[in-house]
Amino acid sequence: MPATIIMGGQWGDEGKGKLTDALASQSHLVIRANGGSNAGHTVVTDAGTFKLHLVPSGILNPDCVSIIGPGVVVDPPSLVRELVGLQERGIETKQLLISERAHVVLPYHPIIDGLEEQHREAGEIGTTRRGNGPAYADKAARRGVRMADLRTRDRLNKVVRSAVAEHNEVLTRFYGHATLDPDQVVFELDAAAEYLRPFITDAETRVQDMLRDGKRALIECAQGPMLDIDFGTYPYVTSSQSSAAGACQGAGVAPIHVDRVIGVYKAYSTRVGGGPMPTELLDETGERIRQRGREYGTSTGRPRRTGWFDGVAARHVARWNGITEVAVTLTDVLDVFEEISIANAYRIEGVELTTVPAVVDDYFRVEPVYETMPGWGTDITAARTRDELPENAIRYLRRIEAFLDAPVTMAGVGPSREQLVPLSANAAILGGRVAR
Q1: pLDDT for 80-110, tens place per residue?
Q2: Residue 238's closest CA among 118, 393, 133?
Q3: Which of 76, 293, 301, 302 is placed for a possible disulfide with 333 were both Cys, Cβ 3.0 to 4.6 Å?
Q4: 257 part of the active site
Q5: What is the mean pLDDT of the chain?
Q6: 119 included as an active-site residue
Q7: Domain match, 191 and 204 both
Q8: Catalytic member of 21, 28, 41, 138
Q9: Residue 436 pLDDT class (50, 70, 90 cuts)
Q10: HEC profile of 91-158
C-alpha cells in the first residue's frame, strides 16, 4: 500500500504536473491534496497541451482514479468549466471523485480577496484574487461550506443562504461593498452542483480501500513549500499547507503509507506575487530566463519573477519535507549562459546565514552569497540519457544535489514527458518511461 508524494521544492510552478502525468501511468489513483483554481499544472502529451487547475493531472490516464481531496478548496463553476473542456477534447472524466469534505469557494470569497489586497496597499501579497485565502479562512473559522452541503438542493439552499447573509454583513459594514443576492448565488451554485453531484462522494474511504488492497497512490501537491503557511515566507504565503505533511492531511493518506517524496525543483528560481526572493534578477538576464522558460502563470498569465537557483531556500525545503528524490526541471533554459550562479548562503549586516529567516522583514534584507559555475553552452533538448548531457550540466546538477542532500535522479530538458532524462537507475522516469 505505498504512496508517492510529488511536491514542488521552491515557490511553485516547478513542473510537477508533467511528472505526475508520467507517473500516473503506473499508479492506480492520483489525489490532489491542496490549493484551488489558482494553481495550474501544464501537461504536454501526444494529444496536445493541457492546462489543469482543479482536476488532478492523473485525469489524462483513463485507467487511473483521480481524486480532489479534502484539503482542496473548490470553485464549482470553475471546476465544471474545466471538466467540460476536458470532455470536449475527448478526455474521459468518469474516474474523477470529489471529496465531500473539500470546502467550497463561494462568490463572496473572490470579492473579499480583492478587497483585502486593496486594504494591504504597499504590503500586497499578490494573491490571484480567486478567493482561496478567504475560503480557507472560513474553513479555519468553522463557518465554511463543504461539497457535502451541495449534494441536495435543500441542504445547499439552507447552508448557502445563511453563509451569504453572514458575509453580506462583512461586505457592507467593513468594506462598504454592495451585498450579494442570495437567490442568485443559490441559483448559480445549484446549477454547478447539479453537474458535480455524481462526482461528490466519501472519497477518503475509497482511498483507504485502495491502499488496503495494495493499490499505488500518487499525491499531487499544488504551489510550493516556500509558500507553505507554516514554513514559507509568512505572510507572503498561500493559505494551505503545501508540504509533504500537508499533502498527507489534504489527501486523506496516513504518513505510514508514504514511501517516496519526490521534490521537483527548477534549475533556477521563480516566484509569483509579493514577498522576498533574494536571488531575483531584475535585469536582462532575468528577462532572458523568463522568455526562455515561458515563465507566465498557467492560471493567471502573470509574468513570474525569475532569478538564480537559491540553494538556501532549496535546502530548507528538502530538509523539513524529507525529500527522498529530486527532479530538476527546465535545465535547458540555462543552455545559453556562459556562467551560472547559485546562492549558497545569505548575508545580512555582514553576518552570513545558511538558513531561511523566520521574520519576513529580515528576509527582505538578506543579500545572496553566490558561487559561480561554468555553463555548458549547447542545446540539450535532444538529450535522452545521462551520457548525452554535457559534463558541465552534470556538474551543475550534482552541485544542486549537494545542497539538497538528496539524489537528483531526473533532469528536465524540455516540456514533454520524453524530455525527462534519468540520471540514475533509481529514477522514477527511465528514458521517457516510468520505472517499474
Answers
A1: 999 999 999 999 999 999 999 999 999 999 9
A2: 133
A3: 293
A4: no
A5: 91
A6: no
A7: no
A8: 41
A9: very low
A10: CCCCCEEEECCCEECCCHHHHHHHHHHHHHHHHCCCCCCCCHHHHHHHHHCCCCCEHHHHCCHHHHHH
